[in-house]
C-alpha cells in the first residue's frame, strides 16, 4: 500500500509514507530536492563538483557552472574552453568569442582547414592567372601581378599593364628619344654615334679613310673639315671628286699634284708603302714620272699627266709571270689569291674576307689583326677599325660592336632633397676595372630613402659589388650590399645619417649595372619601413 502510494507520487529517489495518503520525497546524499516540484533531485557541487569543469555554485534551481577568467562556458553548461584571449583561442589566424565558444576564421587569401582552426594559403594564380594581364606571382596569403620590362601596373585595377613612357623622364637619352610599346629608342644628332644604348659621342670622321679629305682632316664636335697642305687645294667634307685608296684605316688620294717633284716623290712613298708587298722601296722621280721599285721584277710606276698623278699603275709580279695595268684602289688588294716572298720563303696570302668582326686586314703583314683597344669593327673583311666615340673606350682588343665602347665616368646627381647614383655607362654595360665612390650627407634632421628598381651585376664570385655603409671601414653599419643581379624592386632607408657608397668591377665580366634614385625626408615627421615594394611610381 505504501509503495504504491510512493510510486504514484513520483519521487525520483527516496519516498517516505507520512500517513493519511501523503508521502515525502527526499534525495540521496550529495543531491538536493528540487524546491519547485518537491519531487525531483538535483546534483549538488558536493558530488563531482556538480559536473562543472571549473567552478560550481549550488542554487535552488541546482548547480550553476562558471569558468575561470578568459575561459568560456560551453553549450552544455559544464565544460569550459579557452577564449580568444588565451592563445588566440587555438586559432591560426582570426578568433571570435561567441555564446557557444570561440570561432576561428581566416583573412583573405586563406581558407579554413578541416580542423576548424588552421588556415591554408589560397593559390590565386592557379585560376585564370589571378586575373593578371601578364604574369601572376602567388605569395603567402596574397598574390601580385607582374608586368614585363617597359610596362607598369595600372594603378586603378592593379592587374593590367600600361606602357611606361621612358622619354618623359629626364636624361633618358642624351639627344633624341622615341617612345615605343614596352621600350624606347635613342638617336643621336648628325656627327654623333649612339653607344651604350643611350649615350651619344662625337664620331671622329677623320679616323676612317681620312674623312674623305685629300690631305688633312680635322675633327670637330659633330662634324669635321678638310685642310690644305702645301699646294693641295682644301676641300670640304662633301667632296667626292677624287678616287680613293684604302689602307690601315686611312684614305689616300690619287689626285696629288706633281707641281713639285719632291712633293710628288714624298706622297708616292706614302702611298706605295701601304700597297707594297715588301718594305725595301726605291723611289725614282724624273720629270713627271715617278717609278717605285722594290725588286727587279716588281715595280709600281706612276705617270704624272697634266700636273697630276694618273690612275695608271703598272705592276708585274715575279710569281704570276705576267704584267697588268690596274687602278690604285685595285693595287691595294692585289695580294688576294697570290703569293709573296719574305725571309720565311714563299707564303700563300690570306684574304681580307677571312677577317671577322673585331678584326681588320693588315695589308702590310697580310694577316687579320685584332682591332686595337678603343676601336671596333662590326663588319667582315675590312682594312680598318673605327675609333670609339669621343669620351668612350673599350675594355679589350678585338671589339666587334660600338656598344663595346663604354664611358668611364661615375655618374651621380646628389642634392639636399633628391638625386641618383648610377654605374658608369648606364644603361649600357659598365666598364671593367672601375671604382666609384660617393659620399652622402643630407641636411640635419633629414634621412635618406633609396629606391632600387634593379641591380644587374656580373656573377663572378662577388668581384663586382655595390655596398652602402656608414663609412669606408668594412666594420661600419651596412645599409645595403649586392654582388649579383636582383630584379625585385625594393625601397629602404639608410641605417645611418651619413652614407659611404662604393661600386667596384674587376677585369673580367661586365653587366648592365644600376640606376638608383634617392630622396631625403624629415626623419622626425615621417617613418618608413626598412624595405618595401610600394615605391614603384618613384622608380619610374
From TrEMBL:
<dbReference type="Pfam" id="PF14670">
    <property type="entry name" value="FXa_inhibition"/>
</dbReference>
<dbReference type="Pfam" id="PF00431">
    <property type="entry name" value="CUB"/>
</dbReference>
<dbReference type="GO" id="GO:0007165">
    <property type="term" value="P:signal transduction"/>
</dbReference>
<keyword id="KW-1015">Disulfide bond</keyword>
<dbReference type="GO" id="GO:0009986">
    <property type="term" value="C:cell surface"/>
</dbReference>
<keyword id="KW-0732">Signal</keyword>
<dbReference type="InterPro" id="IPR049883">
    <property type="entry name" value="NOTCH1_EGF-like"/>
</dbReference>
<dbReference type="InterPro" id="IPR009030">
    <property type="entry name" value="Growth_fac_rcpt_cys_sf"/>
</dbReference>
<dbReference type="InterPro" id="IPR052071">
    <property type="entry name" value="SCUB_EGF-like_domain"/>
</dbReference>
<keyword id="KW-0245">EGF-like domain</keyword>
<feature type="domain" description="EGF-like">
    <location>
        <begin position="121"/>
        <end position="162"/>
    </location>
</feature>
<feature type="disulfide bond">
    <location>
        <begin position="167"/>
        <end position="177"/>
    </location>
</feature>
<dbReference type="InterPro" id="IPR000859">
    <property type="entry name" value="CUB_dom"/>
</dbReference>
<dbReference type="GO" id="GO:0005509">
    <property type="term" value="F:calcium ion binding"/>
</dbReference>
<dbReference type="InterPro" id="IPR000742">
    <property type="entry name" value="EGF"/>
</dbReference>
<feature type="domain" description="EGF-like">
    <location>
        <begin position="163"/>
        <end position="201"/>
    </location>
</feature>
<protein>
    <recommendedName>
        <fullName>Signal peptide, CUB and EGF-like domain-containing protein 2</fullName>
    </recommendedName>
</protein>
<dbReference type="InterPro" id="IPR035914">
    <property type="entry name" value="Sperma_CUB_dom_sf"/>
</dbReference>
<dbReference type="InterPro" id="IPR011641">
    <property type="entry name" value="Tyr-kin_ephrin_A/B_rcpt-like"/>
</dbReference>
<dbReference type="Pfam" id="PF07645">
    <property type="entry name" value="EGF_CA"/>
</dbReference>
<dbReference type="InterPro" id="IPR001881">
    <property type="entry name" value="EGF-like_Ca-bd_dom"/>
</dbReference>
<dbReference type="Pfam" id="PF07699">
    <property type="entry name" value="Ephrin_rec_like"/>
</dbReference>
<keyword id="KW-0964">Secreted</keyword>
<keyword id="KW-0677">Repeat</keyword>
<feature type="domain" description="CUB">
    <location>
        <begin position="410"/>
        <end position="521"/>
    </location>
</feature>
<dbReference type="InterPro" id="IPR018097">
    <property type="entry name" value="EGF_Ca-bd_CS"/>
</dbReference>
<keyword id="KW-0325">Glycoprotein</keyword>
<dbReference type="InterPro" id="IPR000152">
    <property type="entry name" value="EGF-type_Asp/Asn_hydroxyl_site"/>
</dbReference>
<dbReference type="GO" id="GO:0005615">
    <property type="term" value="C:extracellular space"/>
</dbReference>
Amino acid at each position: 500500500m505504501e509503495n504504491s502510494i510512493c510510486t504514484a507520487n513520483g519521487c525520483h529517489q527516496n519516498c517516505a509514507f507520512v500517513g493519511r495518503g501523503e508521502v515525502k520525497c527526499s534525495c540521496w546524499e550529495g543531491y538536493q530536492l528540487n524546491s519547485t516540484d518537491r519531487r525531483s533531485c538535483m546534483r549538488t557541487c558536493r558530488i563531482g563538483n556538480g559536473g562543472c569543469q571549473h567552478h560550481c555554485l549550488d542554487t535552488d534551481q541546482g548547480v550553476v557552472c562558471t569558468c575561470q577568467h578568459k575561459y568560456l562556458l560551453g553549450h552544455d553548461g559544464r565544460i569550459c574552453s579557452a577564449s580568444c584571449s588565451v592563445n588566440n583561442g587555438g586559432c591560426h589566424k582570426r578568433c571570435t568569442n561567441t555564446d557557444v565558444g570561440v570561432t576561428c576564421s581566416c583573412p583573405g587569401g586563406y581558407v579554413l582547414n578541416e580542423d576548424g582552426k588552421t588556415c591554408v594559403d589560397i593559390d590565386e594564380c592557379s585560376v585564370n592567372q589571378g586575373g593578371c594581364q601578364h604574369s601572376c606571382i602567388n605569395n603567402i596569403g596574397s598574390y601580385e601581378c607582374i608586368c614585363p620590362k617597359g610596362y607598369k601596373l595600372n594603378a586603378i585595377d592593379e592587374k593590367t599593364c600600361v606602357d611606361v613612357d621612358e622619354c618623359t623622364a629626364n636624361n633618358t637619352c642624351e639627344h633624341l628619344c622615341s617612345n615605343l610599346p614596352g621600350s624606347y629608342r635613342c638617336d643621336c644628332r648628325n656627327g654623333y654615334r649612339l653607344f651604350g644604348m643611350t649615350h651619344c659621342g662625337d664620331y671622329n670622321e677623320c679616323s676612317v679613310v681620312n674623312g674623305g679629305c685629300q690631305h688633312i682632316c680635322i675633327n670637330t664636335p659633330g662634324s669635321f673639315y678638310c685642310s690644305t697642305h702645301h699646294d693641295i687645294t682644301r676641300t670640304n667634307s662633301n667632296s667626292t671628286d677624287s678616287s680613293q685608296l684604302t689602307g690601315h684605316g686611312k684614305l689616300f688620294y690619287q689626285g696629288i699634284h706633281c707641281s713639285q717633284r719632291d712633293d710628288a716623290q714624298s706622297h708616292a712613298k706614302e702611298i706605295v708603302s701601304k700597297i707594297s708587298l715588301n718594305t725595301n722601296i726605291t723611289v725614282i722621280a724624273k720629270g713627271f714620272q715617278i717609278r717605285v721599285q722594290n725588286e727587279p721584277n716588281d715595280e709600281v710606276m706612276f705617270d704624272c699627266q697634266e700636273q697630276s698623278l694618273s690612275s695608271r699603275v703598272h705592276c708585274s709580279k715575279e710569281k704570276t709571270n705576267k704584267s697588268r695595268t690596274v687602278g690604285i684602289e685595285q693595287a691595294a688588294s692585289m695580294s688576294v689569291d697570290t703569293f709573296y716572298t719574305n725571309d720565311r720563303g714563299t707564303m700563300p696570302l690570306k684574304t681580307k674576307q677571312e677577317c671577322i668582326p673585331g678584326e681588320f686586314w693588315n695589308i702590310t703583314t697580310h694577316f687579320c689583326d685584332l682591332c686595337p683597344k678603343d676601336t671596333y669593327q662590326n663588319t667582315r673583311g675590312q682594312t680598318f677599325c673605327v675609333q670609339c666615340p669621343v669620351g668612350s673606350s673599350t675594355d679589350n682588343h678585338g671589339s666587334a660592336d660600338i656598344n663595346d665602347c663604354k664611358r668611364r665616368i661615375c655618374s651621380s646627381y646628389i642634392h639636399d632633397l633628391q638625386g641618383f647614383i648610377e654605374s658608369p655607362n648606364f644603361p649600357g654595360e659598365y666598364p671593367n676595372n672601375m671604382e666609384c665612390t660617393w659620399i652622402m650627407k643630407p641636411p640635419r634632421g633629414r634621412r635618406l630613402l633609396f629606391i632600387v628598381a634593379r641591380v644587374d651585376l656580373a656573377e663572378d664570385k662577388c668581384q663586382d659589388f655595390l655596398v652602402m655603409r656608414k663609412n669606408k671601414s668594412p666594420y661600419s653599419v651596412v645599409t645595403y650590399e649586392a654582388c649579383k643581379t636582383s630584379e625585385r624592386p625594393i625601397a629602404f632607408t639608410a641605417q645611418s645619417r651619413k652614407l659611404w657608397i662604393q661600386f667596384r668591377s674587376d677585369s673580367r665580366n661586365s653587366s648592365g649595372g644600376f640606376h638608383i634614385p634617392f630622396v631625403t625626408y624629415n626623419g622626425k615627421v615621417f617613418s618608413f619601413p626598412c624595405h618595401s615594394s610600394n615605391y614603384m611610381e618613384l622608380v619610374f
